[in-house]
């Protein structure tokens, strides 16, 4: 048997662990008394929702948070890479408790008392997520709520002065602890920076702030006949989408986030502001700094504005569903369809388990076959849509497909696609008390899709627990979601093995450990296996040149200096 490329767990559960009590309250928190320069966006009235309970060990006073953050700097970062004894990590030189207290006081004086929060619940919400595959035990020291790029400049200058880590935060829906605060520090929540700043209809682009959601953006611009096509989970916001280079159900036709970002306004660790390029869609002027920052997870700079490309809304869109006897038939159809160049807007795979979740969740108006299924969106001109449907139907038949079913009207099409978009949330709603959901993703060359999906599906089924496959199969990316008992060590070990074997298998197929979730804390070992130490060292060099004090989202993507 081949030796595993990836670890089966983490040897320092003191730092990171999966076993967290369920947190019923998951919505964004917006300070009800925060100053408003322009309150037309309506955010000022949002009320804080209270979580049901937090164990005593997680009640963090500001002083305790400051103390723990300083201890973290003194102890260093004891996560993932300690499996390799030969690799050591230089501890970051962060500020003292007094330094952090001074930073908080100085920012309150500059930005207003209500722009900085040290509320216990607020710290918890910004430092822990039940969506994530793992979490850091440490929480941020404080949460800041800037309203402009100038506010972010002040935050960066003060944090740089006192050597206080900074963690950008927008939607809070990432899955690899991307916004956690393993060193404490200042979380920068962009809740108040959620506006469309400019729309250039004739140029088909838009300038936005980081905490506008892609769904809100499309709602605001729909009157222009344009839309922003990158569509990950419903709660995703532009800042996090830029940070992880996410994709979505439209990826097979429209690509990923990197394809739709024209330029970024970025605050660097010391408070300097740069714009990565100007507004034409085409340029060969200098380094591609926009491309460098997309996918950097806030480790190189803090994005405060993004100029995004837009696309025309298609003339006609139809939603179709077709089921297959096996998951391999399903994946083979997708691979062959891509190879033949048949035009589809979206192509999603859901296994039998996930289809059962959709049926149980309701909301689509009918019951669907509980079998491996492909969801399609066909869009374009009426003639083009009809042609693509006919070609897809013929191809699916060669892989033993059952009859195509189409949404009867626009409402049913919306409900059906919403069911796919809400699949993780539907799964969470069905879980038992004490269980966790581990969601992960990989990507492979499209020719290997049938192989990896078939093997992974068998291993998930063999677990004997609630586990499913779904995802954006059109660009070689799929996800697994596993519901397991966090209080059962044996079950947790089996789940970890299946997850890491799937990632291992993707790497052996010349694939990637993540297609869109990002690295965060959760996949640093996997990234090292995928790219090698020399490539990671180049990334460290880039990080060091822009952030020599390691203040921007430290501990993410790769460890601190070797």
From TrEMBL:
GO biological process, one term: lactate catabolic process
Comp. bias (Polar residues): 32-43
Main location per the UniProt record: mitochondrion
Region called Disordered, residue ranges: 32-53
Its EC number(s): 1.1.2.4
Group of enzyme by EC: oxidoreductase
Keywords: FAD, Flavoprotein, Mitochondrion, Oxidoreductase, Transit peptide
Domain FAD-binding PCMH-type: 134-313
Protein name: D-lactate dehydrogenase (cytochrome)
Organism: Penicillium citrinum
């Amino acid at each position: 048997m081949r030796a595993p490329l990836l670890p089966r767990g983490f040897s320092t559960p003191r730092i990171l662990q999966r076993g967290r009590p369920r947190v019923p309250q998951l919505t964004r928190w917006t300070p009800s008394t925060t100053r408003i320069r322009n309150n037309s966006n309506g955010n000022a009235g949002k009320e804080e929702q209270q979580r049901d309970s937090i164990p005593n060990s997680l009640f963090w006073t500001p002083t305790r948070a400051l103390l723990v953050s300083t201890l973290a700097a003194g102890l260093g970062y004891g996560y993932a890479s300690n499996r390799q004894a030969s690799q050591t990590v230089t501890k970051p030189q962060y500020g003292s408790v007094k330094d952090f207290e001074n930073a908080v006081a100085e920012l309150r004086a500059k930005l207003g008392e209500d722009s900085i929060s040290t509320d216990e619940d607020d710290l918890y919400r910004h430092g822990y997520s039940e969506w994530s595959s793992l979490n850091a035990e440490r929480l941020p020291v404080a949460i800041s709520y800037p309203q402009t790029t100038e506010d972010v400049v002040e935050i960066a200058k003060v944090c740089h002065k006192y050597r206080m880590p900074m963690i950008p935060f927008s939607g809070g829906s990432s899955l690899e602890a991307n916004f956690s605060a393993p060193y404490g520090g200042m979380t920068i929540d962009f809740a108040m920076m959620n506006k469309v700043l400019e729309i250039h209809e004739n140029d088909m682009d838009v300038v936005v702030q980081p905490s506008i959601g892609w769904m809100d953006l499309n709602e605001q611009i729909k009157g222009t006949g344009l839309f922003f096509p990158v569509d990950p989970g419903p709660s995703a916001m532009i800042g996090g989408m830029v940070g992880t280079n996410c994709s979505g159900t439209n990826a097979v036709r429209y690509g990923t986030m990197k394809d739709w970002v024209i330029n970024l306004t970025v605050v660097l660790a010391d408070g300097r502001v740069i714009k990565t390029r100007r507004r034409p869609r085409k340029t060969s002027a200098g380094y591609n700094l926009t491309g460098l920052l997309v996918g950097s997870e806030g480790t190189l700079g803090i994005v405060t504005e993004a100029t995004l490309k837009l696309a025309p809304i298609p003339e006609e869109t139809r939603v179709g569903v077709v089921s297959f006897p096996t998951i391999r038939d399903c994946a083979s159809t997708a691979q062959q369809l891509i190879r033949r160049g048949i035009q589809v807007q979206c192509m999603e795979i859901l296994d039998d388990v996930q289809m059962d979740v959709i049926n149980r969740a309701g909301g689509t108006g009918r019951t669907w076959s509980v079998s491996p299924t492909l969801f399609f969106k066909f869009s374009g001109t009426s003639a083009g849509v009809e042609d693509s449907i006919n070609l897809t139907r013929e191809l699916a038949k060669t892989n033993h497909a059952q009859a195509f079913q189409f949404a009867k009207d626009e409402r049913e099409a919306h409900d059906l696609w919403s069911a796919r978009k809400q699949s993780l949330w539907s799964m969470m709603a069905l879980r038992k008390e004490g269980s966790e959901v581990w969601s992960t993703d990989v990507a492979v060359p499209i020719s290997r899709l049938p192989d990896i999906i078939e093997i992974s599906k068998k291993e998930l089924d063999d677990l004997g627990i609630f586990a499913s496959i779904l995802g954006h199969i059109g660009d070689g990316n799929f996800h697994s979601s596993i519901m397991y008992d966090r209080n059962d060590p044996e079950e947790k070990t089996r789940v970890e093995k299946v997850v890491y074997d799937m990632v291992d298998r993707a790497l052996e197929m010349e694939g990637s450990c993540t297609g869109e979730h990002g690295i965060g804390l959760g996949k640093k070992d996997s990234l090292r296996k995928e790219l090698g130490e020399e490539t990671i060292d180049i990334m460290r060099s880039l990080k060091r040149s822009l952030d020599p004090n390691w203040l921007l989202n430290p501990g993410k993507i790769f460890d601190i200096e070797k």
